[in-house]
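Write out structure tokens for 5'-3' exoribonuclease.
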Amino acid sequence: MGVPAFFRWLSRKYPSVIIECTEQKKIDETTGKNVYEDASLPNPNDIEFDNLYLDMNGIIHPCTHPEDKPPPKDENEMMVAIFECIDRLFSIVRPRKLLYMAIDGVAPRAKMNQQRSRRFRASKEAAEKTAEVARIREELKAKGAILPPEKPKEQHFDSNCITPGTPFMERLSRCLQYYVHDRLNNDPGWKNIKVILSDANVPGEGEHKIMDYIRKQRAQPDHDPNTQHVLCGADADLIMLGLATHEPNFTIIREEFLPNKPRPCDLCAQIGHEMKDCTGLDMEYHAQAPDIEFGKETKFIFVRLNVLKEYLEKELVMPNLPFKYDFERVLDDWVFMCFFVGNDFLPHLPSLEIRENAIDRLIHLYKKCVYKTGGYLTDSGDVALERVEMIMRDLGEVEDEIFRDRQKNEERMKARNKRQKMERERRPNFDMIHKTQFAPTAVGQGRGPNAIVNAKEDILRISKMAMNNTALDSMLKPVGSSSNNETQDNRGVKRKADNSIVELDVNKQEEDDQAHDEVRLWEDGFKDRYYESKFDVMSDNIQFRYNVALQYVRGLCWVLQYYYQGCASWEWYFPYHYACFASDFVNITGISKKFSKGTPFKPLEQLMGVFPAASRQHVPLPFAKLMLDPKSSIIDFYPDDFQIDLNGKKFAWQGVALLPFVDEKRLFKAVDPYRKELTLEEEKRNQLGDDRLYVGIGCKDYQLLKKFSETENDFEREFPISIDGMQGLAILSEENISIGGTFPTVIPGLHDCLDNRVVTVKYRDPKYADGFIFPARRLPNAIEPPKVLKQGIDEGNPNYRPHIGFNNNRSQFASVGDAGRRTVNHHTGNRYFEGGNSDRNDSNYRKPYNQQGFSGGNNYQQQNRQNYQTNQSRFSNSYSSVPPPQGQQQQQQRGYQSSRSAQTSSTYTPNNQQNTRGGYSQWRSDRGGAHQGDRGNHGRNQSNRGGYQRYDSEQNQRYHSSRPDRVQGPPSNNYGGAYSRQ
């Protein structure tokens, strides 16, 4: 969903929502692949999930064109990567009833405009990147640099092919059908589950097909209201969609986001530098180590929506309302207000930016206005426009103030950046010496006799030259290297362009931004300038402003219905590139909220509506001609180039692509004469299809469906089914493999699926009458999940102890493993642990607690359980008659929450709760204890059974879901160290 930074905002504000997934796997030494534990065993996350839903496009894209590792060599490798990703997710979640795989089909017209923008951008960026790669490659070749062979043109992967109607999506569907048959026949973890595959020929976005399924199952009388749902996907709108179901047990699983992940260079495929800084391959490195080793496998995290609801329930308390308080209704209003900040169908209001706490601002206005509105904003997808107008009126009154504050903040940011740049130029660059000196280098790969030198001598020489105002360039080369050596080894450090050039470019960019900002929202008259600049209308055309606001309000109504009732119209879309102002929401009460349902595009029609001409190879040839022929009646739909309006942003991807909107009537009229030229295969790709339901021999009602598939002859008759609480309609499928038959492999190197025991039928959701309203309410007999947040205690309180993991009855706590203790001791010189640089002769030294301490993890934990009440006194009972060392006394005086944070910078200013002498340890006698005392790039986040720690580089804080008060101070940008779960 189009809410940039929404997940970051949410995870910072509500840290206990997120926990880390626990996986049980090992590495196959022969293949290097993951081998997962039998998924039929109990879930290691201490919870048993029922249904796993996969928003498949969030899996397909990173598997086919990953950003942090080399891409697959061909489509076969892509398919295998997708299989492995599903295997991993299945091993983590271990669903017991249903696996639902949903691929994006044809989208509503409101979404197609965004898809069109994305695909045109992707094509433009790919063309620019290809030209840049060719230019830099020729320059490096002229200098004699070694580069990997250039990829053949046919090996370049166009990610635009991940769109309904392309040959790639047809092959993907066939591969997934093979995958499902293989797992249901051979994997014991899949034995008892049902599988639904909704491929690209089934209309609708993947996540909304999933929501339609859940919504229609909830409305069935025998639905289990305590079903455990897990939805996989990285889009921010999945959180809002999950809340909109009102299911008590709904969890999102997604990849953990790690900023600044290393990306391979597009030229040499090595990490550590960008393409513009590439100098080619190291000759010895190229000969001896052609395979690049990349970072660790990305972890998955759980986003617990029941915990998010706990936060919101505390935050949205409104006492003494003139009507009955209903948190479920308030929750729907919160979801609705998030739409104003951004979504996939409407541009966000100019005055609302998520990074400026726009949601908090709306919540404040909502809580203030609700006393005079007389009721809630929404009801099961219906919007009370008169109440929305009151909130927008209040927001409009402070819009000018918001714009002025934004400009002041931007000016302060620019001044700070300029000041920091000047400070960096004045001090010597020790960081480069440190990184290049200790960059990982295989034996024999150094250059010259002095590849390994004394770092301290380098630093002293650089310091002297810096004081003499001497350039540092020569000092950044290895000792003994020639001044003409242009192939200096910079592996392990990200190479930068000349600082002066960068500064000139930045300053020039800042001047250009100022010069091209015609609107100047922070100055009087901004509204007139906005409409003149963005919409090209005169300032006195007030009716036009009302028309934009009218369409925006209708868009809000459409989006809310889409979330709560399904697609209200396949044809409606917002016909402008920009939004109106909040102050333009005037007299909106009478705006119509009715829509014409219409029908979805067919897949090939959508391709013509969203593809640029550069991706015409995925379109049938008769249609593709219309993209290039100058005489084509729709040639204006496919501009070779287009403008991107930064609209006050810094990066092109944040800007607005000013593409012409597609007139669907003109489009259909243009392609109609060419439909008869389509091949049978192309006609098949252009059809709208049904979901597929697969059941294995261990599934309930297997015999019923087996008999149905063997005896039924009518391929149109709908057969009602009820399988383990799932309702729906089954239709005979032409793709059903007979029992005992063979599903041949579709990927070379994989085995055929022999002796088939899987039944395949077409599946349709239960039907409801036109106009049926799915109530957005908690179902009767739904059991509230156990509370996770401590009532009456704020997370900032030092005594706060949130529960980590899913099982509240299980004693869960975090402790430091042996490897973690050794790492901490080595880098901090901590004398309160065994090993490291401890001074055992110090007369003040006394091992905390007892001789077992951390040297025996389980014994330590057992003792702390036995002496839990005694140990509540923490430091006061941790020592006998011998007083603690001075550093420990300072800790006691400042509070046990004091911690020496991990540091990666050469300069550091401690806060008022940190020991300025550095490197001290923090002890926890509460349920297992833990140590935090790292000074270097160590100190991995720790949580038992999924506790998750976030690093906040902007706010100078760390959040920890299991111990929010444990770590304070400047953040670490490195994830290192080793911890163990006890």
